[in-house]
Amino acid sequence: MTPTPSLPAAEPRPGLRTPFTYSLFRAIWIASLVSNVGTWMQNVAGVWLVTTLTTSALLVALMQTATSLPAFLLSMPAGAIGDLIDRRRLLLFTQGFMAVVALGLGAFALSGAIRAIDVLGFTFLLGMGSALNSPIWQTVTTELVPRPVLPFAITLNGVSNNIARAIGPALGGLIIAYYRPGWVFVLNGLSFIGTWLVVYNWKRAASADNGPAENFSGALRAGVRYVQYSPAIVAVLVRCFAFAFGASAMWALLSVVVARRLHLQSGSYAVMLSWLGAGAVSGAFLIGRIGHRLNLNRRVLLGSLVFVGTNLALALVPGEYWLFPIMFVSGTAWLITMTSFNTSVQLHVPKWVQARVVSMYMLVFQAGMSLGSIVWGELADRANLPLALLIAAGWMLASLALALPFPMHQPEGLDFSPAEPWSDQLPALEEEIDPDDGPVVVMIDYDVAPADHAAFRLAAQQLTRLRLRDGALRAGVFTDVAQPARITEFFYVATWAEHERQHHRFTRDDQQVEAEVRRFHQGDAPPHVTHFLAFPRTANVEVAAPPLAVAGSAQ
To answer: Are 165 and 279 within 8 A, CB to CB?
Structure first.
């Protein structure tokens, strides 16, 4: 794995400009900005082209489906692939693939023979490339800057997206007005080529050894299992879904508010989006000032409160000029909140599972946005628009209570570097064990004074969670009824290879949890560790037992 850069000696406390002092981050950020602008130009040109090629409203609406459906289908598989394959090579493939598709669409459109269904097909292919690219692209940031700088780097990535959101559609509209949509597709393809060249020049070191190679299905299960037994990640996913579900009302119904409630033209809607984008960019500078004062939990609470006000304003404010500053503040809150989620996810996981966890985070976010848009849109149609927005505001207000059972944890002080050597080293083997042999049972015997049992149990619960998170199918702690001081921890793993992976997945942070458990062990010798492998290694076959010999019987 690429060594994490160290902080410049001249800047002991990082700020928003610190990530730009790292040349590779700076180059990739600029390339990403250009590519994001190209993508937003493409979105405008694609929808406009389909609109001019067909009278079917369904085909026009399917453009959004063609863009978002691949994310639902491929987000988690993309995360697993990103953790199994060298990320640089995968980015070269995805950027090259999207360049070819965009240039092909441009050539086809300029030929004049393209149909609406063809645009949908090319858009779906671009969506596939984006779905495969996104989880890996987000995790690459952790390799470009040191950990203390990462929150600011993630914030700058959000700024890049919002700058592109602000200027991309306008540039695309200008090109369409004076030339043809095909040229927009060509420019988008060229932007992917620029990103490809930057990634190609990234001299990424070979990845660190993470134990025996995982297969695809096993990698998916490992990612889901990691999230299941990681309370900090579960808290982010629950809070993110709740926020996205309520905040989606603004994104889904803003155009309807402008057109139907305020009776304004499309230009006013564009101005609203510009205020949102300007607020998001300003939010990046605000994070630089308040980032050291507000923890992640308070930032999300603040963002949710702002969107309570946003939904109320969209339902009740009488004129557009009142909405301009509200959209500005909403854009600021959006960037601060989404950056907080993103930062928390990336700083709470080790690199071996990072892309998989990020992909699940993206899937949960998209699910919240998509489901929320459907619910609020349907409610606005069946009841009325202000009522839908008022209920969305009520949802956002109620979601604040989630901070109690699902608090956002601060990532400071966490150390996810590999704990090598792991204190429970693999035993010396007389012969080679097939990686697919199993299951494997590991038993660790402790000698704990009965007076310490309650405290030991609490510490052991944390260690059991780590065993399950890193690959165990079952885990637990038992007491010897004949010798109460003897306590045995066990965990059950499917194969020998999976147990070897456990050793590579164990981090220095996990080692502290294990040390707390071992603190209760009495005696000079360390806890006794025993590894059991299923016997026999071949499939079990019932064999008839020989008849018992009876004295005096005929032989």
So the answer is: no
